[in-house]
Amino acid sequence: MAKEMIAMLLAGGQGSRLYALTEKLAKPAVPFGGKYRIIDFPLSNCVNSGIDTVGILTQYQPLVLNEYIGNGQPWDLDRLYGGVHVLPPYQKASGSDWYKGTANAIYQNLSFIERYDPEYVIILSGDQICKQDYSDFLRFHKEKNAEFSVAVMEVPWEEAPRFGLMVADEDDRITEFQEKPKNPKSNLASMGIYIFNWDILKKYLEEDEADPNSENDFGNNIIPNLLKDNRRMYAYHFSGYWKDVGTISSLWEANMEVLDPDNSGIDLFDDDWKIYSRKRTMTGHKVSAGAVIENSMITDGCNIKGEVRHSILFEGVKVEKGAIIEDAVIMGCSVIKAGAVVKHCIIAENVTIGKNAVVGEMPSDGENNVATIGAGITIGDNAKIGPKAMINKNVEEGGEQW
Amino acid sequence: MVVSNTSALGIIFPNSYDLLIPELVNVRLMASIPFASRYRLIDFILSSMTHSDIGNVSIMVNNNYHSLMDHLGSGREWDLVRKNGGLHIFPPFAEKASKPYTGRVDALYGILDFIRDQKEKYVVLTDTNIAVNFDFKAMIQAHVDSGADVTIAYNEQEIPKGFLKSGPKDKSFYYTFDVEDGKISKIYVNSKESGVQNLSMNIYVIDKELLIDLIDTASIHGHQYFERDVLLSNINRLNIQGYKYDGYIARITDMKSYFDENMKLLDDYNLDALFSGFPIYTKLHGGDPTRYLEGAKVQDIMAADGCVIEGNVENSILFRGVKIAKGATVKNCILMQGTVVESGASIEYLVTDKNVTISAGKEMKGTDSFPVYIGKFQTV
Fold first, then answer.
1. Residue B285 falls within a domain, yes or no?
2. N or C: more exposed end of chain B, with fewer CB within 10 A?
3. In chain B, which residues have their Cβ closer than 8 Å to the Cβ of A288?
4. Does the structure show a pLDDT above 90 at A255?
5. Helix (H, G, I), strand (E, B), or coil: what is residue A327?
6. Is the pLDDT of residue A1 over 70?
7. Cβ of A281 and B281 within 8 Å?
8. How far apart are CA A305 and CA A323, in angstroms?
9. Which of B245, B275, B305 is the last residue of a domain?
């Protein structure tokens, strides 16, 4: 029984620019928006688009991600035929290799795709916050009778040189590809989401593997090769919310945008396109007398006795009396002790911020620094953590870090 | 299959005491009454069983059980999807001569062949009108150590008002004990005694073979009630031990106790007492964190995920997806899933069932002693 389209989700990236947040887990497993992880977005998009077979390619620090995905049940991906499969690099009779590049990761799992004998394969990226209907993308791909399509976003011209750009004719057929060019001929940025006809994908991956000079990368090798052979390549325009949360400031910003769905364009509360996640069981959250909560999101298991403004609190966060929180992202089960002041920062899971400690500050003009505290860290009482700090070691009582 | 010498089969009676709280069981049964912002009453007993290695659980549903079936599904959330054992739901058997059961004897007689076939050595029988974080393992061990025929859990408290005012029509029997040296020497049915009593929690541990024997005999004699007709009449022949429980217990015996037991959880001390033991599992729903928008003012509340709060809320319990609009005021209320309080409305001492709407500008007040109940899907 063949599948029409299956998804291959690239989730091996370290996300090195997230520093302290990705020391122990892969970027797609980074918590987001109160009760999600980044990978919930592509996975939920798949299910909502009718894709029931997903291979997740992992490499860097996969433990948290593997446990989180489990049997795929929260996303309805525990299926008899298909479902979700985590695909780490493995040893073969001929030897073993880490995934050398995005294309090589898929190449090493060609036999996985072969089992489902699909007509199309969609390649997804596990580090973007985006609600997208892949079935509409496939409709476009079929309408154009394309062999390869890529989802593109229009970006402002002045930002175009930061992206891989697709130059397309009026029929959306791609004529040229520019990787981070000085003089862009187009402002259509690739989102790193591709649909291939399966036979084309297979052919080009095999040829790419045979080329010893290749970096085995979709952007640098596969797409230029397709262009060279004059394949039918099309650009699919996407205009919804899309954010690559590859940096601390973009991750912080995307979280803050969740608080303002009317203006930001990212609406997690839309019943027509739900984002699913694996939940823990905790009691409802509690708010005590004297607490203040404004413009914030609070999740199950939280206990709020202090002041919380314009912030996102994940499951089980405790905010003691007199603590002040503003513009902050505070991940699961962290504790903010009495009198602590926590502003404009990201605090990872299971962190303790000591009494009267200060973390981050509201930015002054032109600056946008986000203080960051890694998972499991303890910040001692009365310690001071500056707005540019990136903390991955405990800070003792009264200590200062800038 | 490895059967340890303390392995037990769980049998739950989800309809017990339904008649004491007619408002809430109009569309459900005792076991599926929403409690503590995101749970159903059965979650406490079921999770406790899972944590006590009771992985073979039968639920003797009698009537109004659709909500419970929906809640339990395959039992996955309680880790009760098992090759051996797992979750069994026994609805009344559709047979010419059969009807919904009247007492435990009836119910158990109907599944006697099933019980006979199970490998477990002991049987645990319970109701669901109590929320406890209960260690069945310890109780079974006490049962084994004492060499009892039957062990019954009890706690020391006054007889709840809901019990005292129940009439014979309610068929809601409750039991108090005289306990001497751990042995139950006397069982009282529907005692009106004042002061602290040894009040049965209706949790029983009994040897499986003995249970089969007792039920077989009782059924032949046309007896219906396990406690009154089987235990009480055999009290001199059987070694019945009491198992005193002194942990936290929320016992639902009427609307007032339902209201009070929810409200008590606003005190962190009580919340910790009920939830700090084993985690309590419940059906998991998708849904976002709760949003507090401009204008929200809250104090002393417990709220589940998915709520949107723009108004004033004080001293209340909010279940999933409750919406409190701008300028609305909510005080001392229990608002179940999907309740909407529109702008400018003001409510106090209300218990709203699922998907109730309080229209804009409406004012409604109950009192501490008589909280007003609004039925499912009503618009006020």
1. no
2. N
3. 268, 299-300
4. yes
5. strand
6. no
7. yes
8. 8
9. B275
Are both B311 and B185 inside the same structural domain?
A: no
B122 and B266 fall within a common domain: yes
Please give the pLDDT value at position B70. 93
B56 phi/psi in degrees, rounded to 5 = -130, 100
The two three-digit tokens of residue A279, written as one number: 């939940």
Q: What's the token pair of residue B84?
A: 């051996």
ipTM over 0.90: no
Find chain B residues with C-beta within 8 A of A331's C-beta: none
User: What domain range is B354 assigned to?
Assistant: 291-374
A314 CB neighbours in chain B (<8 A) are 289
The letter for the amino acid at B207 is D
> Closest to A295 (Cβ–Cβ): which among B39, B275, B294?
B294
- B299, A293: Cβ pair inside 8 Å? no
Q: What is the pLDDT of residues B367-376, one digit of tens each?
A: 988 999 998 8
Which residues 142-181 on chain A approach chain B with CB closer than 8 angstroms? none
Check residue B94 and give its pLDDT: 57
Please report which confidence band the pLDDT of residue A91 belongs to, taking 50, 70 and 90 as the band edges.
Answer: confident
Contacts of A293 in chain B (CB under 8 A): 292, 296, 298
Number of domains, chain B: 2
Q: Out of B98-107, B114-123, B316-325, pick the least confident.
A: B98-107
Residues B198 and B317 grouped into a single domain? no
Q: What amino acid occupies position A82?
A: G
As a three-state string, the secondary structure of B58-123 is EECCCCCCHHHHHHHCCCHHHCCCCCCCEEEECCCCCCCCCCCCCCHHHHHHHCHHHHHHCCCCEE
Percent of chain A with pLDDT over 70: 100
What Rg do the C-alpha atoms of chain A give, in angstroms?
A: 22
CATH value at residue B327: 2.160.10.10
CA distance B234 to A328: 65
Residue B280 lies in a domain: no
CA B166 to chain centre: 18
**Average pLDDT score, chain A:** 92
Q: Does B163 lie in the same domain as B77?
A: yes
Give the dihedral of Cα atoms A309, A313, A316, A321; nearest 10 deg: -20
- End residue of a domain, out of B243, B275, B307: B275
Tell me: pLDDT of B115 over 90.
yes
% of chain B exceeding 70 in pLDDT: 96
Q: Could you tell me if B225 and B85 lie in one domain?
A: yes
* Amino acid letter for position B153: A
| Nearest to B146, CA basis, from B234, B205, B215, B226 | B205
Q: What is the pLDDT of residue B5?
A: 62
| Nearest chain A Cα distance for residue B34, angstroms | 13
Q: Which two tokens stand for residue A63?
A: 């433990």
In a domain, B205, yes or no: yes
Question: Are residues A297 and B290, on separate chains, in Cβ contact within 8 Å?
Answer: yes
Compute the residue count for chain A. 402
pLDDT score for A61: 83
CB of B235 within 8 Å of a chain A CB? The answer is no
> What is the full DSSP assignment across B114-148?
HHHH---SEEEEEESSEE----HHHHHHHHHHHT-
Which of A293, A310, A321 best tests the B interface by mutation, with the highest count of B CBs <10 A? A293
CATH number, domain with residue B48: 3.90.550.10
Max mean pLDDT among B74-88, B216-230, B247-261 falls in: B247-261
Interface test with B, best of A287, A307, A314, A318 (most B CBs within 10 A): A287
Residues B126 and B72 in one domain: yes
pLDDT of residue B166: 81
For residue B315, tell me if it sits in a domain.
yes
Per-residue pLDDT reduced to its tens digit, A192-226:
999 999 999 999 999 999 999 999 999 899 999 99
Q: How far is B9 from chain A (nearest CA, A)?
A: 25
Together in a domain, B156 and B205 = yes
**Do residues B327 and B258 both lie within one domain?**
no
